[in-house]
């Protein structure tokens, strides 16, 4: 079978999951434009468009382009030899922020076992002494752990939605078991790698019992975790009916109507649960974390206040950076990169850029908050002139 993408035809490879190999020139880039809660700058890396883990609530199903191919045909687009492209881009710059693998599709999804693009990309960063992080609901390959443990600011995040394995199979059908997810955290912690547990997202009336959430947090703490990140499910308007039909399918018509009543607030094309409900959940989570001597933050949580969109981290976050770890901007010295002196990585709040890059002092009024590879190249030139 062949499929057309951008007027070119590609052979569909059926095993281990339906996918196509597509040559790519896509570039490393920073956070998307618009509202932003992420304190630290990141270079976003997506080797796979589409994901074989199969979460019915995945917001990327509302994304355009290759993600619509996955939504409609269940064909994952694999960025052919993307690790080589990433390596060339890293060699073209003298300024780097932490790599982020990956913000939209699980880097260790089943298809990665065939191509190992995620491990190859991690290696490209670590060989240059540039930090990189990953977020996963799958088993972390041992190779990834062996690589990142050699780079002091690299770290891992593991998403754990429930301790109920039967429920986990509904929400994350082809992800790792709950036990394996906690083993991920233990394996990272034992190697001295900063490990984050994400309860992300929380499903109202399904996974939101405070007692159950506290059990996840306690087990994560026992696995070596010192930082928790959480969010409540939000629903892209574009795929609202699809998600609600799945809620009805798995949890009944009564639950579907509960969701329709709860999800009324539209913020930039995403429906959010009632703000009072969300704040109750977040307040309970922060209190639990404080009692257990853990730090806490939210991911992409907002409210509308006085006709403005306001991030909730300023109310609930207890760490300097939302991921619980301070990662500086890195600067090249000959063939390796090294941390900028005294940089704490909290670019969103920075007013005095010790890294030397004025653009990254985003605590200043009117500062741009989305960056491209061309910006990294420009900063590299500016630092050469200055230094």
Record keyword descriptors for this entry:
three-stranded mixed beta sheet; pyruvate-formate lyase- activating enzyme; seven-stranded parallel beta sheet; single chain; 22% strand; 387 residues
Word description of this protein:
The chain has 387 residues and is α/β, with parallel strands linked by helices. The chain has a domain at 154-318: pyruvate-formate lyase- activating enzyme. 33% of the residues lie in helices and 22% in strands. The chain has 13 helices and 20 strands. The protein is globular and about 65 Å long. The protein starts with a strand and ends with a helix.
Distance between the termini: 56 Å
Average pLDDT taken over every residue: 95
CATH top level label of the domain at 154-318: Alpha Beta
Decide which structural class fits the backbone.
alpha/beta
User: What is the overall number of helices?
Assistant: 13
Cα Rg? 20 Å
- Strand sequence of the main sheet, in spatial order? 4-8-9-10-11-12-16
Strands, count = 20
Question: Low-confidence spans: pLDDT under 50, at least 5 residues?
Answer: none
Strand content: 15-25%
The CATH architecture designation of the domain at 154-318 is: Alpha-Beta Horseshoe
Looking at the structure, what is the overall shape? Answer: globular
CATH-assigned fold name of the domain at 154-318: pyruvate-formate lyase- activating enzyme
């Amino acid at each position: 079978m062949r499929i057309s993408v951008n007027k070119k035809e590609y052979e569909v490879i059926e095993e281990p999951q339906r996918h196509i190999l597509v040559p790519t020139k896509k570039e490393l880039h920073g956070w998307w434009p618009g509202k932003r809660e992420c304190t630290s700058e990141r270079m976003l890396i997506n080797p796979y468009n589409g994901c074989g883990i199969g979460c019915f609530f995945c917001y990327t199903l509302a994304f355009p382009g290759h993600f619509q191919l996955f939504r409609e045909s269940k064909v994952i687009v694999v960025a052919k030899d993307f690790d080589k492209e990433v390596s060339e881009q890293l060699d073209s710059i003298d300024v780097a922020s932490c790599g982020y693998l990956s913000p939209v599709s699980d880097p260790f999804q089943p298809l990665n076992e065939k191509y190992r693009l995620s491990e190859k990309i991690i290696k490209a960063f670590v060989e240059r002494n540039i930090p990189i992080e990953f977020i996963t609901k799958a088993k972390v390959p041992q190779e990834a752990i062996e690589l990142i443990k050699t780079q002091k600011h690299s770290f891992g995040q593991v998403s754990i939605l429930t301790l109920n394995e039967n429920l986990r199979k509904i929400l994350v059908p082809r992800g790792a078991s709950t036990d394996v997810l906690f083993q991920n955290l233990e394996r990272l912690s034992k190697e001295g790698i900063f490990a984050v547990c994400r309860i992300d997202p929380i499903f109202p009336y399904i996974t939101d019992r405070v007692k159950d959430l506290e059990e996840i947090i306690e087990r994560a703490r026992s696995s070596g975790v010192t930082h928790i990140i959480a969010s409540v499910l939000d629903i892209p308007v574009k795929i609202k009916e699809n998600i609600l039909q799945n809620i009805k399918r798995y949890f009944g018509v009564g639950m579907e109507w509960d969701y329709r009543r709860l999800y009324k607030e539209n913020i930039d094309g995403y429906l959010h649960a009632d703000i009072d409900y969300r704040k109750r959940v977040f307040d309970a989570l922060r209190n639990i974390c404080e009692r257990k001597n853990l730090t806490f933050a939210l991911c992409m949580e907002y409210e509308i206040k006085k006709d403005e969109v306001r991030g909730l981290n300023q109310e609930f976050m207890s760490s300097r950076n939302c991921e619980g770890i301070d990662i500086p901007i890195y600067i090249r010295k000959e063939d390796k990169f090294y941390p900028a002196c005294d940089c704490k990585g909290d670019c969103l709040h920075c007013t005095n850029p010790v890294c030397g890059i004025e653009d990254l002092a985003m605590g200043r009024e009117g500062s741009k908050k989305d960056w491209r590879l061309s910006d990294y190249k420009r900063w590299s030139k500016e630092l050469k002139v200055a230094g």
